[in-house]
């Protein structure tokens, strides 16, 4: 019965040089990395794919290269494996193949390539060890697909979890809001009586109660907006006119120490959105900018048109389509956001501010609003230099804008 090549090694006649036995031409164009070593463990030949995985092409004519052309090998969990203790050396001793072994090839520049290795001993007809052949499959593309799949599953789980939270939250907050309304009305009725009493102590306590009620009411409104489906009363909006109309309100929000500048493109396209929600989003960004500039600074609100594709806008939302967009950008020269916080700023209830100052829902709702109207959102920030938030809207009348679902109101005049 013939020997099993994988079970007992590949048997070859020992009167032919090793390279010719396997045929260098055979491995030259294989899509997997293939290399051979002799019985002393010295590398004798390899194909271009092996060199590409290693990140270098060893010159075998200068000095012996032991076991492999890889700079360093690591186990699947990242532990360094000295070459003398590697599976390659073990095959030379045991004469037994090793199959489907996951390893990490570390290149000289520090980059890493995950591979699936199969190592087969090469035996002469008398059973003597002549060396081994190793094939390594590049798993980088597979690893990227696995990461994408895991991210998708995590995102789906998070969406399902937030959906359930929102269902419960909507009912609870609705009841909560009703009670707050009663409380606010009672405070309003008490206010005149307290003012008539002339008691400064009661007036101070009333002010504290009203401030606390206002904060809780705002939190309840944020939670309701987060929990329910957003209204779809859409209209065509001129971003320049929107910002000009809000300029006094923006000035009131920022206060004296902050200079507000409008940089509006004369050719800015129209967009389609819910005006109230868009105004709320802009005010939210203005407040964030104000709090990032406690000692004053400059706040710039700008508009411009741009063309987006996947090459110049790689960090896009799932609903991204290349095309024409109009941008509203809010830029400050304040404290900036730390890199470790920047990746979490859109997470619900995440905030770097004091608990009584922020609900952690503002940026989450802005992102949801922009996603709902097929837009995109980008944030850049550097500590000590400031932050820029860009809202990208499909230009009104474009295919991506027409795809937004909802009832559209008459055009603004």
Unreliable stretches covering 5 or more consecutive residues: 1-7, 12-16, 354-360
What's the Cα radius of gyration? 33 Å
Oligomer: single chain
- Total count of strands: 16
Text of the CATH class of the largest domain:
Alpha Beta
End-to-end separation in angstroms reads 91 Å
Largest sheet geometry: 8 strands, mixed
CATH topology of the largest domain: Heat Shock Protein 90
Based on helices, strands and strand pairing, what is the structural class?
alpha+beta
Domain unit count: 3
The CATH architecture designation of the largest domain is 2-Layer Sandwich
Apparent shape: elongated
Order of helices and strands: HEHHEEHEEHEEEHHEHEEHEEHHEEHE
List the total number of helices: 12
CATH level-4 homologous superfamily of the largest domain: Histidine kinase-like ATPase, C-terminal domain
Residues in helices, as a percent range: 40-55%
Average pLDDT? 79
Q: What percent of residues are in strands?
A: 25-35%
């Amino acid at each position: 019965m013939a020997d099993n090549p994988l079970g007992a090694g590949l048997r070859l006649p020992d009167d032919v040089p090793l390279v010719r036995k396997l045929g260098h031409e055979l491995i030259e164009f294989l899509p997997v990395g293939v290399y051979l070593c002799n019985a002393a463990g010295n590398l004798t030949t390899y194909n271009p794919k092996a060199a590409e995985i290693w990140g270098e092409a060893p010159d075998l004519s200068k000095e012996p290269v032991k076991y492999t052309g890889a700079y360093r090998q690591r186990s699947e969990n990242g532990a360094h494996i000295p070459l003398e203790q590697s599976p390659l050396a073990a095959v030379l001793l045991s004469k037994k193949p090793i199959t489907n072994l996951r390893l990490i090839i570390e290149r000289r520049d520090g980059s890493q390539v995950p591979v699936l290795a199969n190592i087969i001993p090469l035996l002469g007809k008398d059973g003597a060890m002549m060396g081994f052949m190793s094939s390594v499959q590049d798993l980088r593309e597979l690893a990227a697909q696995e990461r994408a799949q895991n991210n998708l599953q995590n995102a789906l789980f998070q969406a399902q979890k937030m959906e359930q939270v929102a269902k419960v939250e909507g009912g609870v907050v609705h009841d909560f809001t009703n009670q707050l309304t009663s409380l606010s009305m009672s405070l309003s009725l008490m206010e005149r009586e307290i003012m008539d009493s002339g008691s400064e102590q009661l007036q101070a306590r009333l002010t504290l109660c009203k401030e606390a009620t206002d904060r809780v009411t705002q939190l309840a409104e944020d939670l309701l907006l987060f929990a329910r489906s957003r209204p779809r009363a859409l209209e065509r909006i001129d971003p320049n006119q929107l910002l000009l109309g809000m300029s006094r309100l923006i000035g009131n929000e920022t206060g004296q120490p902050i200079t507000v500048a409008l940089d509006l493109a004369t050719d800015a396209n129209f967009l389609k959105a819910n005006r109230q929600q868009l105004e709320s989003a802009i005010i939210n960004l203005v407040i964030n900018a104000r709090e990032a500039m406690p000692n004053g600074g400059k706040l710039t609100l700008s508009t411009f048109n741009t063309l987006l594709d996947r090459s110049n806008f790689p960090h896009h939302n799932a609903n991204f389509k290349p095309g024409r967009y109009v941008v509203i950008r809010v830029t400050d020269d304040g404290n900036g956001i730390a890199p470790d916080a920047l990746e979490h700023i859109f997470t619900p209830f995440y905030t770097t501010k004091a608990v009584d100052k922020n609900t952690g829902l503002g940026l989450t709702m802005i992102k949801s609003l922009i996603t709902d109207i097929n837009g995109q959102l980008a944030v850049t920030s550097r500590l000590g230099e400031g932050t820029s938030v860009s809202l990208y809207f499909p230009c009104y009348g474009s295919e991506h804008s027409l795809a937004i679902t909802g009832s559209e109101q008459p055009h603004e005049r």
